[in-house]
Design brief:
197 residues; Rossmann fold; globular; 6 helices; single chain; 6-stranded mixed beta sheet; 6 strands; alpha/beta
């Protein structure tokens, strides 16, 4: 099983800006959420043994992963395939500042990208490979993967056998938990966007 965890909140998340490769720390609420995730994740392993805690290299995910790894007694590993979408020149742009025609094009073209950034198709390709590797590594156990909104959506799309544009129809909140298990012939979505309590 893969337990996918979206990192705790940052100030940029609070302000509703595109947050890609910019590297802020968790804000105060995010640190509280990371502590709550460290309590919640061990209860969601379905009796399986944790194999690894793997994270995007960005600070917000690493801080969240560290709290979870300490609770599980495991080291933190990084995998660059779990990094957030590269928004290029639009990184840290307020969502409200993007023109309606930009949103429309982005929502209909999987190869659309911000200047200097990645497309949904790019993210889907790298995350699909990563998710398959992590599920294989998990075996009968669990790999906890701490990541960002776009890669977690891409992992869900992979599990469901969908196309990259399906990501637009998914919502993944900060400090949420999504679970993917191996099934007969294909992965299975076992839990989606579950909040920590």
């Amino acid at each position: 099983m893969i337990v996918l965890v979206r990192h705790g909140r940052t100030d940029q998340n609070r302000r509703a800006v595109l947050l890609g490769r910019a590297d802020p720390s968790l804000d105060e609420a995010g640190r509280v959420q990371a502590a709550a995730l460290a309590i919640a994740v061990p209860t969601m392993l379905d009796g399986r043994s944790p194999v690894a805690v793997v994270t995007s290299p960005l600070r917000r995910t690493f801080e969240t992963a560290t709290a979870i790894a300490e609770a599980l007694g495991l080291p933190v590993e990084t995998d660059t395939r779990l990094i957030e979408m590269d928004y290029g020149e639009w990184d840290e742009t307020p969502l409200a500042d993007l023109a309606p025609e930009v949103w429309a094009q982005w929502r209909r073209d999987p190869d659309f990208r911000a200047p200097g950034g990645e497309s949904l198709a790019d993210v889907q390709a790298r995350v699909s490979e990563c998710a398959a590797d992590l599920l294989e590594r998990a075996g009968d156990g669990v790999v906890v993967a701490v990541s960002h909104v776009s890669p977690i959506k891409a992992a869900v799309v992979w599990a469901l056998g969908g196309e990259p544009m399906l990501a637009w129809r998914l919502r993944v909140d900060v400090a949420s938990i999504t679970r993917i298990v191996g099934g007969p012939g294909a992965p299975v979505l076992a839990g989606f966007n579950q909040p920590v309590r």
